[in-house]
Structures
1.
Amino acid sequence: MRNRPLKLAACCMAGTLLTTVPAYPVLAAPSAGISEYTSTILGSELNTSSVSAGVSTAVAGYLEESLASQRSSVEATQVDAVKASGAEASKSKAKKVSKEAKKSSQKEDQTDYKNMAVAQVNDYVNIRKKPDENAKLLGKLYSNAVATVIRKQGDWYKIRSGSVTGYVKGDFVVVGDEKLIKSVGVQIAKVNTTTLKVRSKASKKSEVLTLVPGGEELEVSSMKSFDDGWVKVAVEEGDGFVSSDYVDISREYTYAESRAEEEARLAIEQARIEAEEAARRAQEAAAAGSTSTGTSSGSSSAGSSDSTSSGSTSSSGQSVVNYASQFLGNPYVYGGTSLTNGADCSGFVMSVYAHFGVSLPHSSNALRGAGYGVSYSSMQPGDIICYDGHVAIYAGGNTVIHASNPADGIKYTSPANYRSVVAVRRIF
């Protein structure tokens, strides 16, 4: 009878321990002291021999199991912490490498600029075979055109520009002026992916303005957001942003023209002018022959005389405008070159001039180097007007004809400077 209360007390003790143990091993210690804290618990407080006086073997086993689980969790936490620390270290190292690479790239750019020359003249400077003003003429370096300096020889520089290698007088070029060199060049972002989204803001969540196919070249408006992963570019819809991961940045310049290249260009232009003049005279002669009175004939003859005197560049340019006007209302298609089924701005200009035997690049940026430059105030019909990311043909009367956008297609727009004009190029 005396043993029964003792058994009951032992059972109560065991029950108390079983109900309180699960909360006992919970670790609230800071991570820095986790290992030490765990060791203390395992080595003393939860020593099986110290609790076996009032706890069954089953209880001791439960405690060991629970603690093993806690220890495993602690070790896993420590491993994760180490991994996280390593990831942060790698990220930091990557940033450092990227920064160093950028610095290295900048140094290389500076070195390149030191060996570059820019023509600073009203029209052009002659490139000669030898450092002598009487030496053979090899080509022309037009104003703001760029060349690579090979060496300096007295008052002359030996340069390479385009297909021409020769000497220019040092008085007519500026060498190593980084600011000037950058100002005469056009910074280009070439798409290196299949299709690139142009967004309204420097954010992946912003509106998509347009899609640009791989290989297309876009003019860079600003590089201020480059470090944040974005490049500001000019498109026909306005300024937009593209991810810097999907474009290759470069700078395009105008280079020298050799004598052979100049002669070929002038010959083509002259042949075209003569052909157009002959066709015009034939039309006027046919019209004069169809009249029945001498007065009409005389009037036609007088008109022919007047026209002949003005048969010049402007008449050739007007022929370009007349031809281009046939395609008003036709669709705008990005990357297209068809005057009937769809063309983009540069494709329209290229295809119009192709009708007259002129080969032009399918790029609004590259068209800035076509023909020769004229001032905005002296524009004539047929001149190519270059804007940021867009080109058009001047139609006269302060109006341009161009492949405007997908909504409007090929149309007239006035005034001609409805957008900021970057350059005016004359082909004829």
Note: Residues 1-60, 73-77, 97-111, 294-312 have pLDDT under 50 and may be disordered.
2.
Amino acid sequence: MISRYSRKELVSIWSEENKYKIWLDVEIAAAQAMEKLGQIPKGVSSVVRKKARINVKRIHQIETQVKHDVIAFLTSVTEKAGIKARYLHQGMTSSDVLDTSFNIQLVQSGKIILKDVDNILKVLKRQSRKYKFTPCMGRSHGIHAEPITFGLKLASFYEEFKRNRKRLLQAIEEVSTCAISGAVGTFANISPNVERHVAKKLGLKVEPISTQIIPRDRHAFYFSVLGIIAGSIERVAIEIRHLQRTEVYELQEFFSKNQKGSSAMPHKKNPILSENLTGLARMVRSAVVPALENIALWHERDISHSSVERNIGPDANITLDFALVRLTNILDNMIVYPKKMLDNLNLTKGLIFSQELMLELTKTGLSREKSYKMVQSYAKKCFAENLNLLNIIQSDKYIINNISQKKLRSIFSYSKHFKNINLIFRRVFK
């Protein structure tokens, strides 16, 4: 996590100040429940709420002595709140605080990322409709295939981010659990009623069964979803990068008036933002495997997951948030060149209609194999001699005698390729 790729809102969620504030919220909520159950004196929670102050520096000072972050935190709270604070944490274990708080941070982050995804969807929807019938080249293996529209390309991204939104909602729900179950999760020294109260107070669900920790498959799912979203970001970014290449130049990232493209070559306009997104996507995805490996811990608990989560928690969430906002801005301000798209469609001089010609030949009585060979031979000749496919087949007696000129002209038009665009858009934007 570095400031260059961070936004303030997410950074604040993963700040030490916010982490300890959540710890305090958990402890106060647990104390409220214990007071109602008569397990600790009345007024503990209210005194702590009024008097306790988060002092990050002091917590760190204490931790250097006690070598335990939660104990250091509780000691610091007691210093401020007074003797009544000694009743905090009764029957609880550190993981009760750490895991419940970590989940709250994930939920807080997930909700902001959800807003980011919603913003991307808005932009993609608008741009898809704007370029709904703008013809462009569809490519497979990087090679010209058949015509599509630029709007259709963007609609594909929209549908993918719709799925991402659904996945993210599920992931947020997955980590919205609370465990206040004590050592090894048996409630031996704390009532399940405390857990229920804390969960309700903090907007979480009760973890059905914890060990000493909340099961890490929940977190693995959450980070896997972040990784998938990062993959979608990179998919769009790579498309922009390819389309901005000089030889293609159908699309361009917005280039401000005083922006410099290269320190050496003044003419350069590089897709640096999209390249940056490719790199950031890699960083987000790098959190997925460690999160998966955190699932298998020793017995009821070890802390091998702890150092992992201290890194991937802030880094993956903050980076993904930044990347989503950057992608939204790119898509919102991108410069599209419809004329260049049309030029590229015509680059191979009709070869992109080879399939339709082949299929039409099969209707004349030729086998598919013979039709394929015939069209392929003409395609090779067109490539070799830079010829127009429609022009060259006019000399083929079989084709002229069996396919009318009107039909040939219809084969070499875009209309057939776009006849179902409205249908596809209705399915996507329903």
Note: The mean pLDDT is 95.
3.
Amino acid sequence: MEFEKSRSANGTNKSKGGREKMKKAFLCLVIAIFSVFMFAKTELVFWHYWDGENGKKLESLVKEFNASHPNIEVQPVFIPGSDLLTKIQLSILSGQTPDLAISDIIGMPLILDTAKVIDLMPFVEKYNYDLNDFYENTLVYGKVEDKLFSIPVSSSNLGLFWNKDLFKKAGLDPEKPPKTWDELVEFGIIIKEKTGKFGYELYLDGGEGTTWQWQIFLWQAGGEFLDPNSNYRKSSFNSEAGVQALQFWVDLTNTHKISPIAPWGLFSRGEAAMVMDGSWMTQFFPAQVNFELGSAIFPYPENGVPATNMGGEQIFIFNTTKEKEAASWEFVKWFTSTEVQIDWDKATGFIPVKKSVATDESYNAYIKNTNRLLLPFIEVQQYSHARPPIKEYPQVSDIVSKAIISAVYKKGTPEEVLNEAASQVDLLLGKK
């Protein structure tokens, strides 16, 4: 009897002890699972094409972000610029996209047309994200009606570079570049007469490079490339302003003869005194040329307006999971913050996409002390124009570029070639 009682009691105790052990084990398991979810990292794949020093800076910034956001791990993946758009399109078709990526602004309409990129406006509204701080034209490529699918992260534009040594040899003030089209011609003629060098180098290699430069002359003369009131579905470059801009190019080459019809590269070799080129060249020209270099806002007509053409990149988020989309937004928000953009622009030489960066005292002090050549490009950003945000733009550009070259080679008048190009473009854009 006592034995039975003892056995019963021991059994009860063992049973209680077992249950307690099971409870503890279960609790530990719950805590372990909870901890995994609490401290697990959301991994994000980020495609980009920045290489060289720009790529190194991006890697550094991503490491900084990852260190300050322990629950998010951004993995930057470099893809050559010539391959990125194609690879993005293929990833969309296969359903295996990265989590976020960048694209040149010209590629954005094609990407948005896939409907695989998320609308960022809910995040903008939720976090009171200030879009007004961005230059208006930098936002064009991500906007579709009341939605926003991409945010600018870098920008570039075009301006005037001049050879101060050739200006001196020609008897011109090396610190005073031309401010108008008439002065560009006047200075160019003097330089050619006094030095035997060409006054101004035009980009006549064709393609987007030719169209991109000519568009500035068009805008300076008061024209539009495609009609914004038609949602960019109708040409307007064959206007009076367009004819004036193209006639100016024809006169530079055929009448004044200060611009050669020759392959690109005369300016860097000291064979031409002036050139239109990109803000990025403020980093490269000083190491390439053996003469004193100046930069300025590009000259515009006496009754015209300042203008430049905008380049750059946009960042966007693919439709994946809510968790990854939210984490991607955290990176986008951080990367486009004024503080990080100041750091990014200082290191890369990109033009600010945000007004708060362009007006920041530390940023401007840095540029003045390290890269004064960039200052005119920063100043003219407020007058930048966006190329039409349509997926057919590459084809349109090709048509216009061929028209420009035809006029320069005297295969038709500016009015004739532009009207013919307009007919081709309108037919192209009229197709659904």
Note: The mean pLDDT is 92.
